[in-house]
From TrEMBL:
Lineage, highest ranks first: Bacteria, Pseudomonadati, Pseudomonadota, Alphaproteobacteria, Hyphomicrobiales
Name of the protein: Cytochrome c
UniProt keyword Metal-binding, yes or no: no
PANTHER family in the cross-refs: FAD-DEPENDENT PYRIDINE NUCLEOTIDE-DISULPHIDE OXIDOREDUCTASE, PTHR43755
Sample GO molecular function, one term: flavin adenine dinucleotide binding
Organism, as annotated: Methylobacterium brachythecii
Flavocytochrome c sulphide dehydrogenase flavin-binding domain: residues covered: 349-417
Domain FAD/NAD(P)-binding: 31-142
Superkingdom in the source lineage: Bacteria
InterPro entries per record: FAD/NAD-bd_sf, FAD/NAD-binding_dom, FAD/NAD-linked_Rdtase_dimer_sf, FCSD_central, FlavoCytC_S_DH_flav-bd, FlavoCytC_S_DH_flav-bd_sf, SQRD, TAT_signal
Keywords in alphabetical order: FAD, Flavoprotein, Signal
Domain Sulfide dehydrogenase [flavocytochrome c] flavoprotein chain central: 158-273
């Protein structure tokens, strides 16, 4: 094989790495991490800190964060504020390869790359996020998402939805369709509806957003309902499943959404489809019939394929939600577990935390916190730990939570991306 096929430029010329078996510096075990999001970057940096050699494979030269992307859609910040490169990750000692993993060969402990090369590993960590189920809603496929963006993977879809809302005439209707659980970021659609309502109230006061929901209950529901009643009584309507909110089909060309309760022809349609683990997880045998990857809750090692760990949104982590905070916590636990397993030590049972802030307006936010522990083959909520923001908090408390949420976002992105 030629040198060109065996080598790949990393981060536009910062470094380059051979795509044969990675060099084992001073005999270190080789760890390969697939996916450069919150979970993947966390585990890679932690493994380096623990003295292990790590190669991170990520197809994009930049990462666009889903947390805070709703604020981009609502015109509260530019998309550059949620976009990061991997230069800081490289400076931390992680070898970053800009490429795509096309296959995992578990028996050979090797991953195949689009470039034609491969990487061997002692342990593999897969943190690939989610895939949209474009087969789940009649009429809604990847082509339809160019007219009715899902914007549930941040980046070009985020910018598209932002532009559509900004271009909409005053008096236009925005419809958001929300799937049944599980999906990435359970409260995310309701934060999005809130911030779009804020934008409409401020810039297009004759407009409105309707949320069509495939369920009757959702995360932080009392807090969102209080916020909507207080802030957006004329600009936001939620239609539950029992009231006809489940989406039946779409006609993207005609901008039509047919729900159980009726037909909608909005100016802007944000269709969030059901989700599952990406195709790579099925190819490798990691995902089950339900579409997610079951894991050992102590080590995050796949219960189906030994030697491979699965983090973040693609994992079936029991009661722990699919969030950036969760992926970050899981990455730290997984890194320590890998270090222990390679050293012949039994990993300790972890306690993991998730905290999720939601904005209802620039100066109005609330949060939920949870603590999770292993029980049998799942992570379960620790009774009496965590909780919701108070439903009757004063405006100054809501404003302080908005500040805290922004501080969390700045802190975690600086920690990960430098």
């Amino acid at each position: 094989m030629s040198d060109r096929a065996n080598r790949r430029q990393v981060l536009g010329g910062l470094t380059a790495t051979a795509l044969a078996a990675p060099a084992l510096a001073q005999g270190k075990p080789a760890i390969v991490v697939v996916g450069g999001g919150y979970g993947g970057v966390t585990v890679a940096r932690e493994l380096v800190r623990l003295g292990l050699g790590v190669t991170l494979v990520e197809p994009s030269a930049t990462y666009t964060s889903c947390p805070s992307s709703n604020a981009v859609i609502a015109g509260m910040m530019p998309i550059s504020d949620v976009t990061f490169d991997y230069a800081g990750v490289v400076r931390a000692g992680v070898t970053v390869v800009q490429d795509t993993v096309t296959a995992i060969e578990a028996q050979a402990r090797r991953v195949r790359l689009t470039s034609g090369g491969s990487l061997t590993y002692d342990r593999l960590v897969v943190s690939p996020g989610v895939a949209m189920r474009f087969d789940a809603i009649p009429g809604y496929d990847e082509a339809a998402s160019l007219a009715m963006p899902h914007a549930w993977k941040a980046g070009t879809q985020t910018s598209l939805l932002m532009r559509q809302i900004a271009a909409m005439e005053d008096g236009g209707l925005v419809v958001i369709s929300v799937p049944a659980m599980p999906y990435r970021c359970p409260p995310g659609p309701y934060e999005r509806a809130s911030l779009i309502a804020h934008y409409l109230k401020t810039h297009k006061p004759r407009s409105k957003v309707i949320v069509l929901d495939a369920k009757d209950r959702y995360s932080k529901q009392p807090l969102f309902e209080t916020a909507w009643k207080t802030l957006y009584p004329e600009h936001l309507e939620w239609v539950s499943a029992s009231k006809g909110g489940s989406l039946k089909r779409v006609e993207a060309g005609a901008m039509v959404l047919e729900a159980e309760g009726g037909r909608f022809v909005p100016a802007v349609a944000n269709v969030i489809p059901p989700q599952r683990a990406p195709e790579l997880c099925f190819q490798a045998g990691l995902a089950d019939a339900y579409g997610w990857c079951r894991i050992d809750p102590v080590t995050f090692e796949s219960i189906r394929v030994p030697g491979i760990h699965v983090l973040g949104d693609a994992s079936a982590a029991g009661a722990m939600p699919k969030s950036a905070f969760s992926a970050n916590a899981q990455g730290k636990v997984c890194a320590q577990a890998i270090s222990d397993l390679l050293a012949g030590r039994k990993p300790d049972e972890p306690r993991l935390i998730n905290v999720c802030y939601s904005l209802a307006a620039p100066d109005y936010a609330f949060s939920v916190a949870g603590v999770y522990a292993p029980e049998w083959d799942a992570l379960v909520s620790v009774p009496g730990a965590g909780g919701l923001s108070p439903d009757d908090a004063a405006p100054e408390i809501r404003a302080k939570e908005a500040v805290l949420g922004a501080a969390w976002y700045r802190t975690i992105t600086r920690e990960l991306f430098g």
